[in-house]
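Illustration 12: Probable GTP-binding protein EngB.
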Amino acid sequence: MSKLWQARFFTTVNHLRDLPRTSVPEIAFAGRSNAGKSTAINILCNQKGLAFASKTPGRTQHINFFSIGGAHVAMHRHDPINMDELQCLIADLPGYGYAEVSGDAKNHWQRLLGDYVQRRDQLAALVLMMDARRPFTDLDQQMIEWFAPTGKPIHCILTKADKLNRNESINVLRQAKAKLDSYVDEDGEGFPFTVQLFSALKRIGIEEATAKIEELAGLADDGAAPTPDESEE
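Figure caption equivalent — predicted structure in token form:
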């Protein structure tokens, strides 16, 4: 059973100075406001309302953190987290690319996200959500270019794959791999970038994404966690 199912809300921050003072690995989820990021997080964590999608996409300009370890979701949901048992944090970054966001909000988003992905030592990897029908927009590429110099992994999840037929899916995945292979460092070496197809609606790619995220976070599946009961609040 996935350790991601233990995820609980940890904290929310709007400035770098308020980032959690922890040393555990962090896995950041990023993507355009309409890429299905919140839905994917909820599916992967087996919880309906963990990540909240704003009714006005792009309005949320803060980072939400969810904890893995130190507490079990299905038991004593509201008990304090045992920080000694904390294993990982999931960082839900603000969605980007929504036209109605003000200039000031966009500037704040750029500073917050840019500084976080470039300077956060605890950040172990980036999970980049992109609509499979429209991957690698200018802002997606900007996020990749911000993060690439760190040398850390990026796992691209191409959402809404159910909207594609089989041939389209094969072509999109091949083109995405070629695009990621085109990023090289100063020595011409490739980066640790990976990509997969995903659909929350058809439950495509859930096991693949779970395994990759657990690998990136260093989470061992020891089977110790209880099965979450979504009926408990």
